[in-house]
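Batch job 17 of 40 flagged for manual review because the log was empty.
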Amino acid sequence: QLQSLNIVYCEHGGSSRAVREYLSSSRIIEFAKQNPSVSISSKLRNGCHPYVQANYVTGSDKQVCIKNEPIKRIVNVMSLLNNSSGRKISKIGNPVRTLKPSIQGIWTPMLDIRNTSFDIKFVE
């Protein structure tokens, strides 16, 4: 669960233009009202590109760069971070390995052997 969002941006940089517009608009207030359990803060860092840092209850965090992104993308990033768990993406499971591979072959819908007779010989 998301605990806090930190929006870091530059006061003068062109890459932070949309972030400054987003912070001055009412969209950030709407997001805060919809998510009262999330604390939102903004930090001014001149000379740096903007990013959003999310801190989760589990202790993990995520950072997403929003350099030169439009306001619509910033809204999507905020909701993406709010809806994610904060865990790192990891591959689940391994491919199946066996010492005795199948000799049956791959089934296809074109394989119709219902009316086919086979000569079965038992070898002793």
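Reviewer: the log was empty due to a logging misconfiguration, but the result itself is present. The CA atoms of residues 5 and 123 lie 73 Å apart. Unflagging and moving on to job 18.
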